[in-house]
Every structure is written in structure tokens, then in C-alpha cells.
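Per your request, structure below.
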């Protein structure tokens, strides 16, 4: 059973599909991402990862689960949309201009 099947089985066993519309899943992604950010607030990254790795994994898993559910609702293949985005980013951020550079693509010269 793949990850998406496991997520859907968990949801379906509890009859939660009725609550998982696209809007609410998008909201849930943001909320869980905010919980992940909160772990880092007012701390340096090393302190957070050293002391809260289990919580980081939990919050990151929540973001990923809701993201998978949203993709499933919209019949999107996660590998395909990531591949397409990487191709777009490869054009926006050519290696010769962006290597070691944190500038947004609109600022690259």
C-alpha cells in the first residue's frame, strides 16, 4: 500500500472525507505549517532541531499529509506536479546565475 492509499484509508475508516474539501485542506496546510514555524520562533535553528526534532517531524508530517490529500482531491499526481515545478525552477534559476546566490529569479542578473 502506497502512502496515498494509507492516508485515504485512515481518512475513510473514520468517514472524514466529508470534511476534507479543497478549501479546508488548504487552510489546514497553512495552520500546520504555522505550527511548524512556531517551533522555530525566537530560537536559532540548531537549538530547535536539537530539542524538538520529534515535534518537527510531527508538524511536517501533518503538512505533507494534508498536501497529499489536497492533491488526491484534485486528481493531481504529486510526482508529476513536482517534476513540472522543478523544470520551471530550472529555467527561472539557471545554475550559472543562481549558484550560491539567494536572490529571487527576478533579481538575478
Amino acid at each position: 500500500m502506497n502512502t496515498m492509499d494509507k492516508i485515504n484509508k485512515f481518512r475513510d475508516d473514520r468517514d472524514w472525507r466529508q470534511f476534507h474539501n479543497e478549501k479546508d485542506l488548504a487552510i489546514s496546510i497553512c495552520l500546520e505549517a504555522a505550527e511548524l514555524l512556531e517551533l522555530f520562533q525566537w530560537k536559532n535553528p540548531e537549538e530547535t532541531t536539537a530539542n524538538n526534532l520529534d515535534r518537527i517531524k510531527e508538524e511536517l508530517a501533518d503538512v505533507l499529509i494534508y498536501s497529499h490529500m489536497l492533491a488526491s482531491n484534485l486528481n493531481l499526481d504529486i510526482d508529476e506536479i513536482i517534476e513540472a515545478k522543478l523544470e520551471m525552477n530550472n529555467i527561472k534559476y539557471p545554475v550559472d546565475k543562481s549558484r550560491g546566490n539567494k536572490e529571487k529569479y527576478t533579481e538575478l542578473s
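The chain has a mean pLDDT of 95.

Regards,
D.
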